[in-house]
Amino acid sequence: MLKKHFFIVDDDPIAIMILKKLLIKCDFNITPLSFKNGEEALDHFKNNYSSSNQYIVFLDINMPIMNGWEFLNSLETFTTPNTTRVFLVTSSVDETDKIRANQSPFVSRFLSKPLSVATLDELIKVN
């Protein structure tokens, strides 16, 4: 069985705190790593990636230094959609963001903030 690693990539510390609490409330025995921009997450990911593990990333789109789109593009250089699933969690209501998300093989779902326990339960059971 693949070991699952959870990442939260978001520049909003409150959004990170809420998502961590929701994951705990959903009874997942996980401690997600959190990063405040895509560059920090990418550096960690590249240095610790193993194709024998499964990675689940909750990714914000609009962040400083490296945004969500740049992070997604960088994933393609060293991982595959088979090992890395991304959930875009954003406050964006821009339809072009949804279209762009649907074109990425890494993006499993485009989700609006804030997430709920029911949404997380559904996501984790399916994935």
From TrEMBL:
Residue numbers carrying 4-aspartylphosphate: 60
Keywords, comma-separated and alphabetical: Phosphoprotein
SUPFAM superfamilies noted in UniProt: CheY-like (SSF52172)
Domain Response regulatory positions: 5-127
InterPro entries: CheY-like_superfamily, Sig_transdc_resp-reg_receiver, ST_Response_Regulator
Membrane-traversing stretches: none
Gene3D superfamilies: 3.40.50.2300
Coiled-coil regions listed in the entry: none
Protein name stated in the entry: Response regulator
